[in-house]
Each structure stands twice: as C-alpha cells, then as structure tokens.
Design goal:
The protein is an alpha+beta fold. The protein contains 2 helices and 4 strands, in the order ααββββ. It has a two-stranded antiparallel ribbon. Strands 3-4 form a two-stranded antiparallel ribbon.
C-alpha cells in the first residue's frame, strides 16, 4: 500500500504499552504493599483429643465434630 494506508503505518512504528513517566517513591510503594501481608491459618484445640485443628472442620486426629464422632479414624 504505497498510498499510506494503515498497514504501512503499523509496520513503521513500534507498538509499545504505556509506561509510567516517573518512578514511584519508596513511601508510595510501601503504602501499596501494606495490605499484602499473609495471615497465619487459624487453629483451635479439639475438645476431645486436644490436638490442633482448623475451626469448623472435623478433627483429623479423632474424627469428632461438635461433640460427636463423624468419621472413623484408624487407631495406630
């Protein structure tokens, strides 16, 4: 397309993504990252066997939940 069509225009120019004009300061970067911290998984003690377990889950050690045995667990 010698008449200056769009096909020639896209080949002649580099197509780049927009980039920031200025560098973000350390303070601005730190403010953005304040909510990125991970929290430890919550644990509670099983009332039956007193082993740590996740709240609102069946105890993996004894199989109890809400005061009754829900799942059979192999005794070792």
């Amino acid at each position: 397309m010698a008449s200056g069509g769009k096909a020639d225009d896209t080949r002649c120019h580099d197509i780049t993504m927009p980039n920031p004009k200025r560098r973000h300061s350390k303070t601005r970067t730190a403010k953005r990252r304040t909510h990125d911290a991970l929290t430890a998984a919550a644990t509670s003690l099983c009332p039956q066997c007193h082993e740590p377990k996740a709240p609102h889950r069946i105890c993996p050690h004894c199989g109890y939940y809400a005061g009754r045995q829900v799942r059979a667990v192999d005794e070792e």
